[in-house]
């Protein structure tokens, strides 16, 4: 017989979204203490937004890591197992450890899956020989090593045409690398190529215009609609495929920063919770599942049509938590999310464009100045202030 447990609220994933919702629920309702379970197999939690600056050699990667146990809010149980199967029509799910959790309300917050194996040759070459990525704690140091040791030639920075976490991150590291190459004196013998599977540099026209100017000023070659499909580490060759014509182009590299394709986690993709694309299918304002009224999803694993960032989750979590409480109380849902997201676009050491926008791609800027301008103050915000707000505010359900 599998172990069976029952909770009022079961939260799948103890990342940015899962912990934020848990903390908010427990702050709002003393009655929920002891009735909330967070299910996540990972012993460590990472503040991923700083990985850009780790890759740029500005901060140490250890500063982005905490023990998961220290972040689980008081009043919640932590089940350190991976969910393998959802049965939402029976209000239960099953873990790989054989535990069955029954719930009154389920919150799905399991993040995004990085599909390293969808690029031929990547798994074998990542982390050495100039092949690096900021998209994994284990490889993020290889980015700074590749930049530091680069002696000139072609430096490629890729972006896939799938949804990814932080759509701006693939280009942020490129601007830091450009600065680093100038400092070390190799920029004169270097070609920098931005190869993106998307059709443009950024989705919001106001910030796209500013970023195109940055690319031009820096002398970067931007190639669009190009997906990286294969790496040959021995010959130091990267093969790209045009997203429309399927034509292939091979480029030799000295270093290559790879952002792999990403997708919804397989155990969500293969479940009744998924939409046609595999994402947890929720109402874009209430975050309630469209078929199961006692299921909510938010963050990177959801189909919310906004860019996948921690900043978006900061605005989603209060809405999701409030609507979970509404369902538990038998009340109509009264909280709504407008698609707010933000991307702190690092455009060099000490410079940053702070993009903020909503579902309509309309800028929603916080500060009383034009945030599409590169500013030192916004760089300081990202490097020093936002991490503190994350650990002490967002994850504690305070903001
Ligand atoms: C290089 C980089 C730069 C970024 N820059 C920024 C930035 O500048 N600003 C910004 O706002 N955001 C940025 N982000 C994005 C941000 O980190 C993510 O959007 C955010 O962490 C997503 O939160 P989440 O809770 O949805 O997923 P995560 O925080 O990834 O957490 C998902 C959790 O689910 C757990 N899980 C997975 N599978 C299972 C399972 N089967 N059962 C149980 N649990 C499971 C995982 O172990 C994990 O703990 C960046 C990300 C990266 C990688």
From TrEMBL:
Domain of life: Bacteria
SUPFAM superfamilies with a match to the protein in the record: FAD/NAD(P)-binding domain (SSF51905)
Record-annotated FAD/NAD(P)-binding domain positions: 8-128
UniProt-listed PANTHER family: SULFIDE:QUINONE OXIDOREDUCTASE, SULFIDE:QUINONE OXIDOREDUCTASE, MITOCHONDRIAL
Protein name: NAD(P)/FAD-dependent oxidoreductase
Species in which this protein is naturally found: Paenibacillus apiarius
Taxonomic lineage: Bacteria, Bacillati, Bacillota, Bacilli, Bacillales
């Amino acid at each position: 017989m599998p172990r069976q447990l029952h909770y009022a609220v079961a939260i799948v994933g103890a990342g940015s979204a899962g912990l934020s919702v848990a903390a908010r629920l427990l702050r709002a309702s003393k009655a929920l203490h002891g009735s909330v379970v967070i299910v996540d197999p990972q012993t460590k939690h990472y503040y991923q937004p700083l990985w850009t600056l780790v890759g740029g050699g500005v901060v140490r990667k250890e500063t982005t890591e905490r023990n998961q146990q220290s972040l689980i809010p008081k009043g919640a149980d932590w089940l350190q197992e991976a969910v393998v199967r959802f049965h939402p029509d029976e209000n239960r799910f099953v873990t790989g450890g054989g535990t069955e959790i029954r719930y009154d309300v389920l919150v799905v917050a399991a993040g995004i899956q990085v599909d390293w194996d969808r690029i031929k040759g990547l798994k074998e070459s990542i982390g050495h020989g100039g092949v690096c990525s900021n998209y994994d704690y284990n490889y993020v140091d290889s980015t700074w090593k590749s930049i530091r040791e680069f002696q000139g030639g072609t430096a490629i920075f890729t972006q896939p045409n799938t949804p990814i976490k932080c759509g701006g991150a693939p280009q942020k590291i490129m601007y830091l690398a450009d600065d680093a190459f100038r400092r070390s004196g190799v920029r004169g013998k270097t070609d920098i190529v931005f190869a993106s599977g998307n059709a443009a540099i950024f989705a919001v026209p106001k910030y796209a215009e500013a970023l195109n100017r940055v690319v031009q000023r820096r002398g970067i070659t931007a190639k669009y609609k190009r997906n990286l499909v294969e790496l040959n580490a021995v010959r130091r060759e990267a093969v790209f495929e045009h997203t429309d014509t399927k034509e292939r182009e091979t480029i030799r590299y000295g270093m290559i920063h790879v952002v792999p394709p990403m997708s919804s986690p397989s155990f969500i993709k293969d479940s009744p919770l998924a939409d046609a694309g595999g994402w947890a299918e929720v109402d874009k304002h209430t975050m309630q599942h469209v078929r199961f009224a006692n299921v909510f999803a938010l963050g990177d694993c959801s189909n919310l049509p906004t860019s996948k960032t921690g900043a978006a989750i900061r605005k989603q979590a209060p809405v999701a938590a409030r609507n979970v409480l509404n369902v538990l109380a038998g009340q109509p849902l009264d909280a709504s999310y407008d698609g707010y997201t933000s991307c702190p676009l690092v455009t060099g050491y000490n410079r940053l464009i702070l993009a903020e926008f909503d579902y309509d791609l309309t800028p929603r800027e916080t500060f009383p100045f034009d945030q599409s301008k590169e500013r030192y103050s916004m760089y300081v915000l990202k490097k020093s202030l936002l991490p503190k707000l994350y650990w002490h505010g967002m994850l504690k359900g305070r903001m």
